[in-house]
Design a protein that fits this description.
The chain has no helices and 11 strands. The protein is mostly beta strands and 122 residues long. The N and C termini lie far apart (37 Å).
């Protein structure tokens, strides 16, 4: 049974930073593509960043240069370092796992999801 648990929720002022973590269990973590998604009120869930099994990252244009995704396979953990935060980054953030190593930012490709963690930027 695959489980993903996000942590690191918080409220920051514009220009500030936050780091989100996602702990995984119940699967062969190192072979999966791992992703971060977010959903703001009234909007669809969108892809933010993904990290494949080789550590190659993909980012949405809206976060390039500000967010950094990384993974620690030894500890089954995915990270999202968010810098220069903007009010439009306010959303519920979710981590997700895709059961192949090939990564996309399409939510339909991801099978397993965490419960989400709230990020608020004012």
């Amino acid at each position: 049974h695959v489980q993903l648990v996000e942590s690191g929720r918080g409220s920051v002022q514009a220009g500030g930073s936050l780091r989100l973590s996602c702990s995984g269990s119940g699967y062969t973590y190192s072979t999966f593509c791992m992703g971060w998604f977010r959903q703001a009120p009234g909007k669809e869930r969108e892809g933010v960043a993904s990290v494949d099994s080789d550590g190659v990252t993909t980012y949405a244009d809206s976060v390039k240069g500000r967010f950094t995704a990384s993974r620690d396979d030894a500890n089954y953990t995915l990270y999202l370092q968010m810098n220069s935060l903007k009010p439009e980054d306010t959303a519920m953030y979710y981590c997700a796992a895709r059961t192949t190593s090939y990564c996309t930012l399409d939510r339909a490709d991801f099978r397993y999801w965490g419960q989400g963690t709230q990020v608020t930027v004012s």
